[in-house]
Specification:
The structure is a homodimer of 335-residue chains. By secondary structure, chain A is an alpha+beta fold. Chain A folds into two domains: 181 residues, Ribosomal Protein S5, domain 2 (2-Layer Sandwich); 135 residues, 2-Layer Sandwich (Alpha-Beta Plaits), CATH 3.30.70. Chain A contains nine helices and 13 strands. In chain A, the strands form three sheets. In chain A, strands 1, 4, 5, 6, 7, 8 and 9 form a seven-stranded mixed beta sheet that branches. Chain A has a four-stranded antiparallel beta sheet with strand order 11-12-10-13. A two-stranded antiparallel sheet of chain A has the order 2-3. In chain A, a hairpin with a 5-residue loop joins strand 11 and strand 12. In chain A, helix 1 runs antiparallel to helix 4, helix 3 packs across helix 4 and helix 6 runs antiparallel to helix 7. The longest helix of chain A is centred in the last third of the chain and has 21 residues. The first copy, chain A, is globular. Chain A starts with a helix and ends in a 10-residue tail after the last strand. At the A-B interface, helix 6, helix 7 and helix 8 of A face helix 7 and helix 8 of B.
């Protein structure tokens, strides 16, 4: 199965021509149970299922139109040169949806992710472009189908077509048609995520490369499948019971396990900078004095602090400038 | 089996009375294949075998005499109060060797470990006191037997009764009589260890407690036994072939695996401070520019840099103030 075959299967004989405009917003997301490792790199099929919370108004708004000639892409109001990585990747993805070879897309993308918020924009970005294309062409695809399309752009984008708590099923099928995300029917208005941006001095490697190296060389990766399954069950239980301490403990340990696996890849991968370690120690110090705050970290140096509304004051005091989000604060983007 | 039974078995009817003086030196050591986890906490029997290099003139010199009354302990020329942890632990150990309850030991211990060298002194300390007691009483025990006695004081002390490359066999016996260290017959005069001392701001927990928590709660600990065995075989091969790159790669990954397991303990354990992460990134940056340097880290924030003599200049430049040791530079302490 290839990406284009997946697209053809989902779109069937739907129209790929219009003179209208499509527009959509998709929130960024942070995984409590991480996606780390692909069972199919071409289709972005994951080794494990994952569970995330959306980041509310931190995300991507994208507007798209059909034009004659080459794609014209702008990011945050600035034209992006065709040879930039952002443009080549997006143009490659748009190829699946081009009515004819001679047509292009005008894409205006605005990340409401603050410039230095330390949140990856590819998840919300590929979710937003897929939602915008659905709006443009009037496909009327289900959120599940849109989740699969977004996954082809970026694995974690499959989760960004929803808000709130989202579960991405790994699926079993080789064609990936059962590997989509769905929204969990949970409200947790008190839940908060604090984005702590730290000094970034480490030289990063891309997450796809980091995943592949981890899978290929880390001894501990052998444990990841069963470990992740156990964590997911525990997290779903904690979410259903709104048990914050269990949610925080499992989410933190799951994130640390992902970084632990990277650390034991060869050569080792360490996304952490001195600011990451400093933030972790601060979070644990807060916890030792009785404030239930937990950390999660994605494939980068920045730390996301998990806590409940009543402890917002302590978190703001410990991390001046922290950007706080309520993942269940919005009623949008539900099927 | 208890510690005192082990002592009685080894000493037999050897004398525990003398009016002489015993004196000995033992080097500190740093493990290339780590000791992490006890299969018997009372006897300090390890889950895995381990392999270390000695730190030459960084270590402990101890002088011991019998006296009437309570123990009188001095450390680096200063009298240590009986209720200090250093004294209570040492006095508890000396109880095994007391001729009668009314006799004490006068112990003068000098750590040549520079005050802030970031090297644990319990390994060299317990090796030195055992060697000094052997000298005092004229037991004439073999190094193997002394290694077992030192193990009762501190697990890694079993390795500090030798210099150079040392292997501590985990052993299989419940009484631990086959869990001793021995010196590998290897010279590697070009091998160097650089001690990088970093700012210590993290709150440490003792290594015994950290080990116990890792064994009890880290998912990844299940992999440690087989992982460690594989690393040990590879390291012994690298040592025999004097293949520095393989030695460095395996030693670094083994150390990172130990810290990765701690990170996934619940609650997580992170000995690293911002200085640790900074030093790791510097080491990897050096390696990326072609200088073969590798890291190892024990249960603390400081980093030991592994390299060969020809790269001493680069290491000194990258880490001003680094203390450099030649593990195979001395001919002392061989059986």
């Amino acid at each position: 199965m290839t990406k284009i075959e997946t697209v053809n299967q989902l779109l069937g004989d739907r129209a790929l021509e219009t003179d209208g405009v499509g527009k959509a917003y998709a929130p960024a997301n942070v995984a409590l149970c991480k996606y780390w490792g692909k069972r199919d790199a071409a289709l972005n099929l994951p080794v494990t299922s994952s569970l995330s919370i959306s980041l509310g108004d931190i995300g991507t708004t994208t507007e798209v139109r059909l034009i004659d000639g080459a794609d014209r892409i702008s990011l945050n109001g600035e034209r992006v040169a065709v040879d930039q990585a952002f443009a080549t990747r997006l143009t490659g993805f748009l190829d699946f949806f081009r009515p004819t070879a001679g047509r292009g897309f005008a894409v205006d993308t605005v990340n409401t992710v603050p410039t230095a918020a330390g949140v990856a924009s590819s998840a919300s970005g590929y979710a937003a472009i897929v939602l915008a294309l659905d709006d443009l062409f009037g496909w009327g695809l289900t959120r599940r189908e849109l989740s699969i399309l977004a996954r082809l752009g970026s694995g974690s984008a499959s989760r960004s077509v929803y808000d709130g708590f989202v579960k991405w099923h790994r699926g079993e099928a080789a064609d990936g048609m059962d590997s989509f995300a769905e929204r969990l029917d949970v409200d947790w208005p008190e839940l908060r995520v604090g984005l702590v941006v730290v000094a970034d001095s480490a030289k990063p490697i891309g997450s796809s490369e980091a995943m592949a190296r981890t899978v290929a060389t880390s001894t501990f990766y052998q444990q990841w499948g069963s470990r992740s399954e156990t964590d997911l069950v525990a997290l779903e239980g904690a979410v259903a019971a709104r048990d914050f301490r269990v949610l925080g403990e499992i989410a933190e340990s799951n994130a640390l396990a992902m970084h632990a696996m990277m650390l034991t890849a060869i050569p080792p991968i360490l996304y952490w900078t001195i600011g990451t370690v400093d933030t972790l120690h601060k979070i644990w110090a807060l916890r030792e004095t009785g404030t239930p705050v937990y950390a999660t970290i994605d494939a980068g140096p920045n730390v996301k602090v998990l806590f409940e509304a009543e402890n917002a004051g302590s978190v703001e005091k410990a991390f001046p400038g922290v950007r706080i989000v309520a993942p269940c604060g919005s009623e949008e983007y539900r099927d």
